[in-house]
């Protein structure tokens, strides 16, 4: 099952599908967002719709969006389906900020922290998301950390590794939610990223790491955040080429490899 949730926060990205493989999505998920609401309350309908789609998938789904926060719906959907996954979070950023510590208030900097149980009243309770033990979270290649994030990660039990070192030995046991924010890639290899961070792995290294994790046969869902600006030019078609590699590779991993009951 291939699901597209074309949002960055509450901004609908109608052109996101144009940079994916042709006719890739089995379903495009949109939601009516409550007028007058803001923050997590406004976003909850998107994540609820994603959770419903993931929970109803008969095989391991792939979810593509323009924002890491959509992964909250992917995780909630797996849990609704009776799956209790660990999370592999490949991202240039830590995404472990809080409403109290974030200088910008950017919600996209918080989803991994919310998966670990932070402030369930904000959105987790609304979408039925249960927290995951920190020791079952793996943060991969996060190199742009705000001071509060670095302080939290110093004492948290979240595992840390790099893209090139990511293999089965770095993974928790059991089913996995594999999340990739494409800004983990060095911006020299991928143009137009919203929040580029120098010094990252190449696009080829990220594709290889994704394949290594999928080859374990334990990926319950693959969640891809295409965090480029759709309005930014891509004259060489690098973004579409990367999407082709990640989304049109041999999908045997996405069969009935994880018991969904």
UniProtKB/TrEMBL annotation:
The keyword Hydrolase applies. InterPro entries: Ureohydrolase, Ureohydrolase_dom_sf. It holds the Pfam family Arginase. This is Arginase. Belongs to the arginase family. It comes from Nocardioides panzhihuensis. Its EC number is 3.5.3.1. One of its GO terms (cellular component) is cytosol. GO terms for molecular function: arginase activity; manganese ion binding. Keywords: Hydrolase, Manganese, Metal-binding. SUPFAM superfamilies: Arginase/deacetylase (SSF52768).
């Amino acid at each position: 099952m291939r699901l597209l949730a074309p949002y960055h926060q509450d901004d609908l990205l109608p052109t996101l599908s144009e940079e994916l493989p042709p006719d890739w999505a089995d379903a495009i998920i949109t939601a009516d967002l409550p007028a007058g609401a803001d923050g997590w309350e406004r976003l909850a309908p998107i994540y609820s719709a994603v959770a419903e789609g993931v929970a109803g998938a008969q095989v391991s789904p792939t979810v593509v969006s323009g924002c890491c926060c959509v992964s909250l719906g992917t995780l909630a959907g797996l849990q609704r389906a009776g799956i209790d996954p660990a999370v592999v979070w490949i991202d240039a950023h830590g995404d472990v900020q809080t409403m109290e510590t974030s200088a910008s208030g950017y919600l996209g900097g918080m989803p991994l922290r919310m998966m670990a149980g932070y402030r369930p009243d904000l959105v987790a309770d609304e979408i039925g998301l249960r927290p995951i033990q920190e020791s079952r979270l793996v943060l991969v290649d996060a190199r742009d950390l705000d001071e509060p994030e670095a302080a939290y990660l110093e004492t948290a039990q979240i595992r840390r590794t790099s893209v090139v070192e990511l293999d089965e030995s770095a993974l928790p046991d059991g089913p996995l939610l594999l999340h990739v924010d494409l800004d983990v890639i060095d911006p020299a290899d991928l143009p137009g990223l919203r929040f580029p961070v120098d010094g990252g792995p190449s696009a080829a290294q990220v594709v290889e790491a994704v394949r290594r994790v999928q080859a374990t046969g334990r990926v319950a869902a693959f969640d891809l955040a295409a965090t480029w600006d759709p309005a930014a030019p891509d004259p060489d078609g690098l973004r579409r080429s990367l999407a082709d590699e990640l989304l049109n590779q041999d999908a045997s991993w996405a069969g009935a490899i994880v018991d969904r009951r």
